[in-house]
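Title: Prediction job returns without error message
Component: structure pipeline
Severity: low
Priority: P3
Assignee: unassigned

Description:
Job completed but the reporter wants confirmation the result is attached to the right record. Sequence as submitted:
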Amino acid sequence: MLQGADTDTLTYRIAFASLRGMGYDLAQKILSVIPTEKEYFDIPEKDLQALLQSKVKITERNYRLEQLDKARKEMEFVVNNNIHISYFSDEDYPTRLTNTMDAPILLYSKGNCNLNSSKLISIVGTRHATIYGKHFCEALIRDLKELVENFVIVSGLAYGIDICAHRAALSNGIPTVAVLAHGLNTIYPATHRKDAVEMVRGNGMLVTDYRSCDKIHPGNFVARNRIVAGLSDCTVVIESAEKGGSLITAGIASSYNRDVFALPGRANDIYSRGCNKLIRNNSASLITSAEELVSAMRWDTIKSPVAAKQMKMFADITPEEQPIVDYLRENNESHINVLCNTLGIPMSQLMNSLIELEFKGIVGSLPGAKYTLL
């Protein structure tokens, strides 16, 4: 955890990173004038102001001492909870973040995941995810596993698409990173604590730039989006209303010159309006499959079993089941009574066919006696 730096050095780094407005560019500027973080806190106020040619808050002695005192307490928390610290000058600091103007200079983390892996994909979306969005999210990650190696899924542990992405990654043995909007002393929302524990125990990670003493504030969730976007090569937006955090993340990713993709939806679906707007404004590329993502990113594929899997799936469909599959492919979802009346299939035969299609993993059941193609 100490990465060759002793606790005293890390304490000063924590204090330095906690200074108001401290970011990657400002840290580099200050440390080009003052050799170490410790010296920054030891220099008398007037001398520091003269060196920086400024009388801003971060040069005030009392303010610096206050942050140093909090850093000492935070260091105790870090040591007692085996938390890893990545400082912007460390080798394991995420290199993708160094290419962003507002990157945090220090990250706290729990877990075991390579943030410098060859492929990092952020998946974000509405907290009110529909079956359509969840199914696409799950299929995207499952199919990516068949197409490429060494990729990591990044999201924010929130309700909806975020947690769907994390859980899909975990169930497929894919490393997943949750970027938190608070310290590692808690998990929000609490209902996702089990998922967070599974990440830490597996090959995932919890990451934050907040201390354990920092209060959870609504603005934190917007601020953490810069890390979600900055950690990754691309951001995929799966369902969003016309306004929301997902669109903010997409905008940040674009400002970092990262690729942005969006899942299209029906014009009258409230949680597809944001994605449709991104696509319409050329702020995101349309995406409907893992293959499209891999092709757009120009990643080398390990094999192409997805196509083979689809061929096998359709080969398993019987003549009695084919009309049902065709209808659901065209209409997305349907009530069982509509299927029965439209296709003219007796209800008993239709029920048997739907059960078989569910066992084959081709069709899924929805609330209200509805069915959809997986």
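Comment from assignee: result matches the submitted record. The chain has 17 helices and twelve strands.
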